[in-house]
Write a structure and sequence with these properties.
By secondary structure, the chain is of the alpha/beta class. 41% of the residues lie in helices and 13% in strands. It is built from 15 helices and 12 strands. The chain has a 6-stranded parallel β-sheet with strand order 3-2-1-4-5-6, with helices on both faces. Helix 8 packs across helix 11, helix 9 crosses helix 10 and helix 9 crosses helix 15. The two termini are 37 Å apart.
Length: 422
């Protein structure tokens, strides 16, 4: 598709058109309230819930317990989800929302985006969905969509007295953002807010210690495992045995600051293969990262490394994680996907903090440089940092990561034998 709606364009549309739309629609809401069409406080019990989470598949993994709570509240068949089309696959894997209840939004161009949104809103109104949960923090598009659904209960963040991004007053259940709360717990709270008194601001006055976050364990089919084994055999001929290390060098285009330098991945790959003659290696990535991943594999060199970027579906990627031993990745979706499998994940954080966005569950460990300016990407700056020099990622040395990889390989070999992951 076209690159017209890249992250910077989406941000500009959200800032300039979004502010005006939020201001205008807040006026519309005020008029409705004055005419006695107020909503929220007197609404009957929730029957159908629509989640709005357009971007970032990794964060959707963190929403699993929130989805579980919604299913317990209204039943699986009454939970709906609106998401950008390319971020849908993880929803299908989590399997908490019926496939027919997912509204995928395309955004190759602004016209296509508006067309899909129009159809989604028409369907939401036809289904009489009466509650929305806006999981996009302070983005304006999701607040606008929440209001336009006509749902009687609309949960999401409100800035109250904070100097946070303006997005009008379009929600009925206004939650205060807590920067000290892990995102998984926060999503959980948003759903709990549906059953709270909207007048008891700021929401939510509940003990977060009572919330338990959980994740499912991904269980690939025999066919999926066989497909991945064949792929590995084709890409790494004659290398069917030995531990398998995966390197994921690219964070998404949404946050290039999160990237560890590609040359470090090359150096790390060479070091692992040189010191572990029995090891095999694969470079992973999305289809859009295929060329960059192939370059990393070529620079590492040898017949024990191959690029699998763009050669698997998301389900097959998770099946690869089940068969592999170690994943080294920037802070991005794969770090969260790995937590659904037994693989040992080593995730490098810099512009964001694992205290808020760390994976829950799984066998992960984090590397995070304690620079005074880190994390610099947050809810209050729309997750767009002024930084042009990500020293937080550059300060993570190859040696530091290698020590973690070597320790994990030794632990796996001692527990599972030398052919673990074959």
């Amino acid at each position: 598709g076209s690159r017209l709606l890249n992250p910077e364009t989406i941000r500009m549309i959200d800032i300039w058109m979004g502010r005006l739309a939020c201001f205008f629609l807040t006026g519309v809401r005020r008029v409705g309230d004055a005419l006695g069409k107020g909503d929220g406080a007197t609404a009957p019990p929730v029957r159908k819930i629509l989640f709005l989470k357009l971007i970032e598949q990794g964060a959707t993994v963190l929403a699993y317990s929130a989805l579980e709570r919604a299913v317990a509240m209204v039943g699986r068949e009454n939970v709906y989800f609106c998401v950008f089309e390319e971020n849908r696959p993880i929803l299908d894997i989590l399997d908490m929302v019926p496939p027919e209840n997912i509204f995928p939004i395309r955004h190759q161009t602004f016209g296509v985006f508006l067309w899909d949104v129009w159809h989604m809103l028409a369907e939401v109104r036809r289904l009489r969905i009466d509650a929305t949960v806006d999981m996009e923090f302070f983005a304006r598009a999701s607040a606008i969509l929440s209001f336009l659904t006509g749902a009687r209960r609309r949960v999401g963040l409100h800035r109250f007295t904070s100097e946070a991004p303006y997005r009008g007053d379009l929600l009925t259940h206004r939650v205060q953002y807590n920067p000290y709360l892990h995102t998984a717990k926060f999503y959980h709270l948003l759903v709990a807010a549906l059953e709270s008194d909207p007048g008891d601001v700021p929401l939510v006055k509940l003990d977060v210690g009572t919330f338990r976050e959980s994740l499912p364990v991904f269980d690939p089919t025999e066919r999926e495992q066989q497909r991945v084994r064949v792929l590995l055999k084709d890409e790494l001929p004659g290398r069917e045995a030995g531990p398998l290390v995966l390197l994921n060098p690219n964070a998404s285009d949404m946050l290039p600051l999160r990237k560890w330098p590609a040359e470090r991945f090359v150096e790390l790959g060479r070091m692992i293969l040189a010191r572990h003659p029995e090891a095999r290696m694969a470079i992973t990535g999305a289809p859009s990262e295929r060329q960059a991943a192939e370059e990393v594999a070529a620079r590492i060199g040898g017949d024990r490394v191959a690029s699998l970027a763009g050669k698997t579906t998301l389900r097959e990627l998770l099946a690869l994680y089940v068969l592999a031993d170690i994943l080294v990745t920037n802070d991005s979706g794969p770090g969260h996907f790995a937590s659904l499998t037994p693989i040992h994940g080593i995730v490098m954080y810099g512009p964001e903090t694992p205290a808020l966005f760390g994976a829950i569950g799984g066998n992960g460990e984090v590397i995070h440089s304690p620079l005074a300016c880190s994390p610099c990407v947050n809810v209050f700056n729309h997750r767009f940092s002024p930084c042009r020099n990500n020293l937080c990622m550059q300060s993570i040395s190859v040696g530091e990561v290698y020590v973690r990889v070597a320790a994990a390989l030794a632990k796996r070999a001692g527990r599972e034998g030398p052919d673990a992951g074959a």
